[in-house]
Inverse folding.
């Protein structure tokens, strides 16, 4: 009975292990980007993967790449893929790590099959199937690593881009930068309300100078934030509305209701001061251009 | 029968809601509050909900109702001490409590009512000795 591909593949791997490993390492060192990994490094990883594959093939065969017998192989691939994703390799470069094994492996299979063309074709097909699955797995891990990276970065941005600053006794300001989506509005709202409780602020200024576009959804989010702050007993002023955005708001038919809006943060601040019973008076002395502040009890 | 106490502070009434509201309790509160406003000629009602962790649409509607009833009797209603989470929930429910004034705490609420009373007529000091009954 002729050996099936799943049996011949491990045998070939066994017999010609060093030969395949040398050819594979060479293949990769030739195609590698300069300065990314040393030859010894590549050789070590190739050897690790190859021996893991040999064991997996011998114990369970080529069919079940997702099975427990292949876990060590997947482990090695996961590590390689993870490192490459972090080092900034492209997806194809990462997948090539596995796919470049094809040529050395096929050559070894051809040498072992001799003149039996049919057997060679079956062997090659079996090997291709295994390697393709492994390459797909590598690509998947690569994508997952990148996605995690992106998710973490956007989370960082979310936290960085929503500071609540205290401008004056009882006056808070929220300089918003970037697109306002639902999750950001939620964070903004929560941090604003929390700060209102902490500082006992009466007025909060939402500055949208850094918000690139305002559509109906963004306006909806703004209105929600203002309403929530009002329920907490704080008045909101929206400032930093650029001319184009003012036009967009009107064209979209967004009703901002009785929300106070100001063109600049300075105007909003002035209004906020007057609401808290503080008036800004410019000093008579021309040499001292800074204004002085007087607080009048309400 | 369970009742929510109504405290008198000078010309204002203070209601502190600390228990779960249900239909009967809300109706009783409305009735009690209405009779107290007319009895004392109160000019303002403070509703303290700082100890409420959960507010649903029913309580939201009840607050709006009380405010409207008080308005008819010429008293302003101020809801004070709403928790941030409660405020977010109400906004998400679409209940913005129009016509209800809000303040962060009782102190600010009293100041708000004083200002409202002062703008509508003569300013009256809240007499502490008159206190709670």
């Amino acid at each position: 009975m002729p050996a099936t591909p799943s049996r011949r593949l491990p045998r070939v791997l066994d017999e010609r292990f060093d030969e395949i490993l040398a050819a594979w390492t060479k293949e990769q060192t030739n195609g590698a980007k300069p300065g990314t990994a040393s030859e010894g490094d590549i050789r070590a990883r190739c050897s690790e993967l190859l021996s893991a594959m040999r064991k997996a093939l011998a114990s369970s065969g080529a069919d079940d790449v997702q099975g427990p017998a292949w876990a060590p192989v997947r482990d090695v691939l996961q590590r390689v893929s993870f490192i490459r994703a972090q080092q900034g390799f492209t997806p194809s470069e990462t997948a090539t790590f596995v796919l470049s094994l094809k040529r050395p492996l096929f050559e070894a299979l051809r040498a072992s099959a001799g003149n039996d063309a049919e057997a060679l074709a079956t062997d090659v097909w079996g090997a291709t199937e295994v390697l393709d699955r492994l390459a797909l797995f590598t690509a998947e891990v690569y994508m997952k690593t990148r996605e995690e990276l992106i998710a973490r970065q956007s989370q960082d941005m979310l936290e960085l881009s929503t500071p609540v600053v205290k401008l004056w006794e009882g006056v808070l300001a929220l300089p918003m930068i970037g697109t306002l989506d639902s999750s950001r509005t939620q964070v903004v709202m929560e941090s604003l309300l929390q700060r209102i409780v902490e500082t006992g602020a009466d007025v909060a200024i939402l500055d949208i100078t850094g918000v690139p576009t305002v559509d109906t959804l963004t306006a909806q989010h703004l209105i929600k934030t203002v309403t929530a702050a009002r329920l907490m007993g704080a008045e909101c002023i929206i400032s930093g509305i650029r001319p184009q955005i003012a036009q967009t708001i009107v064209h979209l038919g967004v009703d901002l209701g009785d929300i106070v809006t100001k063109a600049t943060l300075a105007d909003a601040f002035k209004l906020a001061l007057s609401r808290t019973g503080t008036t800004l008076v410019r000093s008579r002395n021309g040499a001292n251009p800074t204004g002085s502040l007087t607080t009048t009890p309400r | 029968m369970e009742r929510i106490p109504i405290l008198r502070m000078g010309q204002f009434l203070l209601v502190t809601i600390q228990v779960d509201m249900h239909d009967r309790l809300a109706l009783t509160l409305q009735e009690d509050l209405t009779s107290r406003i007319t009895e004392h000629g109160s000019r303002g009602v403070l509703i303290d909900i700082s100890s409420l962790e959960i507010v649903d649409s029913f309580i939201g509607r009840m607050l709006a109702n009380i405010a409207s009833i008080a308005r008819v009797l010429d008293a302003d209603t101020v809801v004070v001490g709403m928790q941030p989470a409660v405020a977010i929930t109400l906004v998400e429910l679409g209940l913005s409590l129009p016509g209800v004034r809000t303040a962060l705490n009782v102190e600010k609420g009293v100041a708000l009512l004083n200002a409202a009373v002062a703008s509508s007529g003569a300013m009256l000091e809240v007499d502490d000795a008159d206190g709670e009954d």
